[in-house]
Amino acid sequence: MKRALALTASLAALLVAAPALALAPAAPAAQTQAQAKVPAGAIAPIEYTQRTLPNGLRVFAVRDTSTPNVSVQVWYDVGSKDDPAGRSGFAHLFEHLMFKQTRNLANEQFDRLTEDVGGFNNASTYDDFTNYYEVVPANHLQRILWAEAERMGNLVVDEAVFKSERDVVKEELRQRILAQPYGKLFGLMYPQISFDTSPYGRPGIGSIENLDAATVEDVRAFHATYYRPDNAVLLVAGNFDPAELDKWVDQYFGPLKKPDAPLPRVTALEGPRKAPKLWTAYEPNTPLPAVVISYPFPAGDSPDMPALIVADAILSKGESSRLYQSLVYDQQIATEAFTALEQRQQPGSYAVGSIMAEGKTAEAGEAALRAQVAKLRDAPVTAAELSEAKNQLVTDALRERETVDGKADALGRAVLLSGDPAAANRLLGQIQAVTAADVQRVARKYLQDETRAVILYNSDAAKPAGAKPVPGTAPTVVAKALVPPKTIEIVKPAPEGERVAPPKPGPDVKINLPAPAERTLPNGLRVVVSQDHDLPLVSADLVIGSGGAADPAGRPGVASMSATLLTKGTKTRSATQIAQAVESLGGELGADASYDGSSVGLTVKSDQLEPGLGIFADVARNPVFAPEELERERQQALSNLQVALSDPATLASYAAARAVFADAPYGRIMTGTETSLKALDRNDVAGFHQTWFRPDNATLVLAGDLTPEQGFALAEKLFGDWKAPAAAMPAVASPAGQPKPPRVILIDLPEAGQAAVAVARRGIKRKDDRYYPAAVANNVLGGGYSARLNQEIRIKRGLSYGARSSLSARKDVGTIVASTQTKNESAAEVVDLVAAEMARLGATPVAADELKARQSVLVGGFGRTLETTDGQAGLLGGLALFQIDLSELGRYVDKVQAVNADQVRTVGGELFDPAPASIVVVGDAKKIPPALKAKYPQMEVIPVGELDLDSPSLRKAK
Fold first, then answer.
1. What pTM, to 2 d.p., does this model score?
2. Which of 160, 308, 388, 479 has the maximum number of C-beta atoms within 10 A of its C-beta?
3. Residues 6 or more apart from 149 whose CB is under 8 A from it?
4. What pLDDT, in 10s, does the model give residues 69-99?
């Protein structure tokens, strides 16, 4: 859901839209970069224009007429490091309030201008900056520019809205930090152990106490101090007319005044760390031990950063990376190994870490991580590792450039981190110049053993007597009080009849629909090719028409494990060789299974397509399911299951599936249970592959930078000799089974930081004639921020960070689920609210404006999915899986828009009525109000220790 807090900046985010191997020279900033010639074979830089208004607002524009959309982003040079003393979490809390009222915008009207026309909006608070971003159909650009200027200059701070949104942030804190396993480790402790002086040491999410201390006066002062044109960057990317854009920017942003008061800046820098630091934490909801090691790190504009980015990729990017190969694959002491590379305006931190495997200690993880860091310091990396890291970073950059918001984000990050937008177009060129000696040099310089700060994270069940708590934010961290400007204008809402209305939208811009070509090979393999030459990328998806619903009885998880093992060894390649081969091409290869199908997916640069598809075909056709690989993945799956069962939301989804479908295939846990995973053997997974992976049960989709002729030729070359067995495929029992009586279930998860609520019932098949009315009805109920569930639960009452619903239409009857998370004490109230909204959908007709808005949400999301090669491949593969003609892609928009209010009300009554639905609540039972039991006297209370996911009853036999 919206209003995201960026606790860490991922590597992918830091490298968005970086240039490729051969980089064309950037044109001078004052000219349009399209005027610069691009050498043959080079990948063009992001083409932008820039100017600065007299009031200091910096404006960047990236024109792309191939898309029907436009992205508008406003980045403010203020973030969590600027939180006032005693107000940690304040920049993030303030971010939420920017979506509320202004002089001329009513509460929630910003969402009417974005989500309700088929776009989206959101924002993120980082340590150094806060960015607000929207993607809308291009004909709404003028309206969004007006709205962004309106909230920059005319924000209204209302006491009631302030308190409600503060409650929402508290629920976000509970959901992200308290309820999720390892939430405290990553969201609180990691920044706290990393800094003694810098305000980076205060968690960006803040604390309940600091949030409660915030006042309306603080909000007004913060806005007046930092939200001003000379502290902002406006970025526009997409389909627009440059002259119109300049005119609108001048019209709406030009009149905003630059305050006379200087901008306060954080000057406190972290001093050198002279000795290691070690803490041991014991926390509830910790299914497996974990460890994080933090090192001091340079500022984001450091000349050492390109070498550090390469070093980071060598350590942690992909399954051929050093950390994965050592800790996860070879030693099998960890279920996950990771890094956190954070580029900041000031010297920051870098982390390596791991979630341990069952029976392994955090201390063992620390020793293994330190050994890999030492190896990076002590010896040069290999030429193959260096080349692989660079190729992976190229592909990441290209994938980010597929979307207009990705291009704008790249420029914004460059401007805010270095003051230079051209840095976005230089970065990968600098990375290509990195040598093995550079990697070793920066590892020695920054990843020193004596400067590490370590936190060993364990379950509170292992806490010894006398254990000391982990210190919070260091008392020496520098934070200054917010000094409000001498005069602050208190903005009042304009009277109803005097509000300035948003500009009207322009003429519609049509969605560019792909025109897929298809052919069926003699062996029955269906081949679909969708050409898109915007960027040199291709996504491939081999869709198999059988998945978890075909698992043998008593063996849930067979399809999922079979898919996982596809990339773990073939007749000619080991698991490591597969990972190295694909990642050396800059590609990404994976396999997965759903209830209805299985798939193998690949994304790679188009100049590496043929070798990439060769590996892709090998893993799909020739897996060996080696016993040692099965055992390794079994242990991984068991560890992942432990973590999943400690998350209230995941546990609620598992229980809801059992409640709705009982022992039918759709009711079983797709990825397996502890019992079924331990019982799996090679015959199970090899048998699944032999039975279902056959050309006459498969569709190959290729989308991106290739022609149909090229795609068909590659398919014939790599799959033409794949023989279909003579025997027919076996029949599969009805995946959905027969309808079951509704249940009300409370799973007692002691010390749960929040309660998860799920109201679930049977839905429809994908080929049901009611699919489109049901999709629209679901979107009315819970398909986005402005949908009814979120309006009632989050916006009106502040009871959750987000509430949603889903329509899972499958080959057989799927599910309709409404879900949310809330504090344990509010669970009964939230159940009532969810049920009431589901019932209202069939009781009263949806208003015309609301209907049109929710249809636009579906159409807009569809259009954005088509912007990426993997999005196109996913849509086409989905149609193939459900045996729907590909021409449905061209009818999607018309069918959504043809749904009327009567149809929504009818399917609302037929499919969304909560009477036959099961209710699942997962939380701390001692905090759940008695009202839940009073309303549902038949409620089953199942302690988590007595839960049995293998049983339709969900309860262990006594």
1. 0.93
2. 388
3. 252, 253, 256
4. 999 999 999 999 999 999 999 999 999 999 9
